[in-house]
Design a protein that fits this description.
The protein is an alpha/beta fold and about 260 residues long. It has one domain: UDP-N-acetylmuramoyl-L-alanine:D-glutamate ligase, CATH 3.40.1190. Helix content is about 40%, strand content about 20%. It is built from nine helices and nine strands. The chain has helices at about 20-30, 60-70, 85-95, 115-130, 140-150, 155-165, 215-225, 230-245, 260-265; strands at about 5-10, 30-45, 50-55, 75-80, 100-105, 135, 175, 185-190, 195-205. About 45% of the residues are buried. The chain binds 3-hydroxy-5-(hydroxymethyl)-2-methylisonicotinaldehyde.
Length: about 260
């Protein structure tokens, strides 16, 4: 029997982030991928590659989830970009129709093409409707600051404190990604499991943000959980996988984890 992982996320037309990155990650980790599209993002080359964002109609999202969950026995899902309060509510109601072993949430809070007011509504909807369903959440520095309400996140201890505060919103495990935004030579992530904080470290690869790395990281956690890994092992493999993807990035700066990545990591 094949292992299956499911993702509900936005399409990103250059192929580096969103659903495209998620499905490629599933495939590379040996998991059959099923995807539901929530919105379509097409970066605009004529306007500094800004985000053009089009939401998919709620009924169409619900239909896709119905098709995916009826065709397969899915029990592990990743939630990526949702984009509007309506989409958040549609996805939350559809998820409530069956039990899930794991719901991995990548809380994509800001899409440059959106009105700030609309983004705020989406943030609130995500916080109240999706976070309580999450077993694992993977905020970056900015998202962790927003969700925890902390003024600044400058140290590893701050990441741990943010993770504890975000756990109060519902998620069982909180993985705060320091990324290139945290000072120092290392890319540091903390994992809070409801009791303890574990710190994961890897050398930074340059100091530029790689769009899509967060998608790949959360998708890799999802694939490993689908295969039966513990959350800590899944996060650790995902960190190695995303690291290899950033090392192997293509000319658009999109992460690409090549065959044999484990041997080269
Ligand atoms: O990397 C965050 C992200 C997630 N999902 C979609 C995106 C982006 C960033 O551009 O477009 C669809």
């Amino acid at each position: 029997m094949s292992t299956i992982a499911y993702v509900i996320a936005g399409s990103e037309a250059t192929g580096g982030a969103g659903l495209q990155a998620d499905l490629k990650t599933f495939e590379r980790l040996g998991v059959y991928g099923v995807g539901t599209i929530t919105c379509i993002v097409s970066f605009d080359p004529k306007s500094n590659w800004g985000h053009r964002f089009v939401p998919v109609a709620s009924q169409v999202i619900a239909d896709q989830i119905e098709a995916a969950t009826s065709a397969h026995s899915l029990d592990v899902v990743k939630i990526g970009m949702l984009g509007t309060p309506d989409t958040v509510s549609t996805v939350a109601s559809s998820l409530a129709l069956q039990p899930w072993r794991h719901v991995v949430v990548d809380p994509v809070l800001i899409c440059k093409g959106q009105e700030p007011g609309a983004a705020l509504d989406t943030d609130n909807a995500l916080r109240t409707e999706i976070l309580p369903l999450a077993t694992v959440i993977t905020p970056n520095l900015f998202e962790a600051q927003t969700l925890s309400g902390m003024d600044t996140l400058d140290t590893v201890d701050d990441l741990g404190e943010a993770a504890r505060r975000i756990a109060d919103l519902g998620p069982k495990y909180v993985v705060v990604k320091g990324g290139v935004g945290l000072a120092g030579d290392e890319a540091i992530d903390v994992v809070f499991d409801g009791q303890d904080v574990t710190v994961l470290r890897a050398p930074k690869i340059g100091d530029e943000r790689v769009s899509g790395a967060g998608c790949v990281f959360a998708a890799a956690i999802t694939a490993e959980l689908a295969k039966g890994a513990s959350v800590l092992d899944a996060v650790s493999t995902a960190k190695d996988f995303a690291h290899a993807g950033i090392v192997g990035r293509i000319t658009t700066n999109a992460p690409f984890t090549a065959v044999g990545w484990r041997d080269r990591a």
